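Regression test case RT-17, inverse folding.

Input:
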């Protein structure tokens, strides 16, 4: 039996991506805010920091600050107790490091230095009290750590202050701290006093009077950091039956955000301040946070609003990374982290992405080229996630894992697109487990683009059994339509290796060609006719 000789083609594939250091560091960060005190344990893989433990208390350290100038006594006692527990947790989890940072309440309170000194002496935790500028910069770097594409203004609303800072292409400009936290502007509201929306709106407008000149974000994005804004978005999404109940990368138009702000600060204010699933301390900040957001939108004119899942804690981690690691793509490192435990998939994914590049001219796109390739590489890095899962449920389980995984740097549209690619890498057809989310975010042609790339991934996995060495014996190329000639996709196996090519692989090639509306040619097909 003879085989069709390979044709030497110019290499149009992406350059090999350096393999990351896949060692995992477990680190802890304690964030002592004006309202909450939280410890998060992260597993850091390259530039990605994935939270694996999260515990908080709502101590309200800053609730008396405007009146007494001191920390709320009961909150200080709760915080000291929580820090004692956090130190024990760090030891039990054998963390590489435990860092603690404190923001406006500790910075402004007269008794803040005494509290910091006592914690260092009696618990052994050294608290770094951030300046307003440090706090703004750290929150901005947290947004960049979550998505390096961030461009616009970061607004971080805490209990005692609002930080504004501009971000652009991984660069953070000088920020500004404004005394516009709810504990400062409306302490009586937090303790159950009267709520006066008109008076609060005027106070916030006065406090932001000069913001437009420094932080106008027309045509760009306003990134929101802070628990009050996250909870507002969660409540709103639940009311509207939004089909993807996570906030990582969730965005709103200014019009939708303004409607939410009007509802939260006026019509539903009394209900929100007693919202059953939230603590009283958190719930009472929600109407005020809506007023602040509405004023920011009016003054800064953003094109869209994004609820950032990352902020000060992630910024602290990011700032302490080596510069070379900071420049890595956090999404891809997060995919590596999610794939750990499947070494075959880890080493196969980059090779699969490069291999599919030979036919990339035939694959339809949903996003501009750089973003599309970013998602395609992420899909390839995750292609081994189904290992060990029951074959009857594998596609659905992988789909759900990708849809809800704590992956950095994905809009909701990108997230469902990525999940559909992975689903199609295991199963054909148009059924998907969460078709509401798919239909909400993707047009029919966009669904088809995801399914085509997933089918191409499946072809590579089938012919090579997810082995990078075996995959290197095959070459996939694509020729677009030329005049009246149809597009063609061509799969060839190295000379003398024809036994590696079986009927199942050829059927997968034919399925891909059918979806592309292209002719297909392969060694296997040639061999059968000779």
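Golden output:
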């Amino acid at each position: 039996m003879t085989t069709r000789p390979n044709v030497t083609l110019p290499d149009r594939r992406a350059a090999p991506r350096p393999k990351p250091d896949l060692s995992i560091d477990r680190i802890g960060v304690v964030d002592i805010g004006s309202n909450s005190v939280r410890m998060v344990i992260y597993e850091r893989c390259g530039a990605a920091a994935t939270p694996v433990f999260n515990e908080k208390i709502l101590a309200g350290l800053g609730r008396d600050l405007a009146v007494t100038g001191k920390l709320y006594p009961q909150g200080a006692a709760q915080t000291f107790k929580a820090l004692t527990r956090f130190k024990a947790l760090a030891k039990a989890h054998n963390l590489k490091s435990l860092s603690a940072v404190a923001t406006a309440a500790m910075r402004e309170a007269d008794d803040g230095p005494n509290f910091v000194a006592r914690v260092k002496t009696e618990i052994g935790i050294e608290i770094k009290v951030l300046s307003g500028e440090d706090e703004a910069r750290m929150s901005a770097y947290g947004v960049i750590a979550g998505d390096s594409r961030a461009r616009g203004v970061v607004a971080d609303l805490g209990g005692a202050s609002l930080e504004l800072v501009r971000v652009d292409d991984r660069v953070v400009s000088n920020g500004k701290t404004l005394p516009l936290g709810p504990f400062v502007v409306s302490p009586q509201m937090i303790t159950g006093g009267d709520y006066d929306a008109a008076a609060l709106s005027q106070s916030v407008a006065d406090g932001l009077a000069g913001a437009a000149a420094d932080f106008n974000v027309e045509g760009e994005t306003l990134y929101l950091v802070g628990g009050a804004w996250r909870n507002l978005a969660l409540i709103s999404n639940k009311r509207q039956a939004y089909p993807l109940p996570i906030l990582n990368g969730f965005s709103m138009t200014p019009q939708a955000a303004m409607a939410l702000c009007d509802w939260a600060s006026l019509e539903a204010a009394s209900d929100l301040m007693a919202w059953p699933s939230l603590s009283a301390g958190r719930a009472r900040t929600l109407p005020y946070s809506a007023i602040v957001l509405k004023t920011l939108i009016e003054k800064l004119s953003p094109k869209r609003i994004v609820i950032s899942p990352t902020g000060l804690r992630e910024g602290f981690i990011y700032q302490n990374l080596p510069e070379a690691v900071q420049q890595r793509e956090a999404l891809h490192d997060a995919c590596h982290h999610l794939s750990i435990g499947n070494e075959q998939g880890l080493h196969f994914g980059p090779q699969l992405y490069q291999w599919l590049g030979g036919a990339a001219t035939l694959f339809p796109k949903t996003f501009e080229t750089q973003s599309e390739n970013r998602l395609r590489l992420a899909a390839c890095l995750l292609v081994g996630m189904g290992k060990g899962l029951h074959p009857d449920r594998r596609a659905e389980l992988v789909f759900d894992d990708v849809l809800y995984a704590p992956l950095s740097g994905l809009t909701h549209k990108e997230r469902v697109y990525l999940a559909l690619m992975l689903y199609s890498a295991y199963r054909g057809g148009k059924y998907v487990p969460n078709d509401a989310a798919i239909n909400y975010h993707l047009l029919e042609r966009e669904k088809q683009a995801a399914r085509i790339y997933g089918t191409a991934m499946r072809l590579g996995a089938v012919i090579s059994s997810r082995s990078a060495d075996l995959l290197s014996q095959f070459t996939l190329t694509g020729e677009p339509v030329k005049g009246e000639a149809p597009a063609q996709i061509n799969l060839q196996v190295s000379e003398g290796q024809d036994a590696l090519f079986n009927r199942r692989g050829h059927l997968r090639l034919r399925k891909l060609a059918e979806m592309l509306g292209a002719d297909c040619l392969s060694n296997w097909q040639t061999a059968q006719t000779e």
